[in-house]
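Weekly puzzle thread! Below is a chain. First person to post its structure in token form gets bragging rights.
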Amino acid sequence: MARACEFCGKPLNGRALRWCSDRCRKRFCRQEAARARPATAEEPHGDLYEAYLRELVDRDVIHTPEAMSVLRLCEMIESKNTPASAIAALDKHLQESVRALRATSPDESDPVAAIRAAAARKRLEWAQDELSPRRLSRPKIVDDP
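Winning reply:
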């Protein structure tokens, strides 16, 4: 009984057990690996991702690159493919990124931040009023003694 190559079907000679050449062996192994690999479906986002997403939307910084980095770190931490040895480093980086984002965009529910924001709005209104065309066109009255 003559054996045949498992990839191309050519008869095997000598000591070959499954494939006629290295080329057929490699092709067969690649084909089997492709079959064995399941189609990756989108993993649903976990609680960590959802919590930070809500916070970033509430702070209105979701459009910044730093916010995208925070969300990507959350995805990596929650992923099944992330090695356990990497989770601690990812979590540390996530906490640093979130701390930096919170520092640049204070929470509006904080009373001190609300007062500072109101003062900044007033300064902006005052500056815009000072630079308005009607204000600049008024003649300055100078008292000459």
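Puzzle host: Confirmed. Bonus trivia for everyone else. Residues 84-104 form the longest helix (21 residues).
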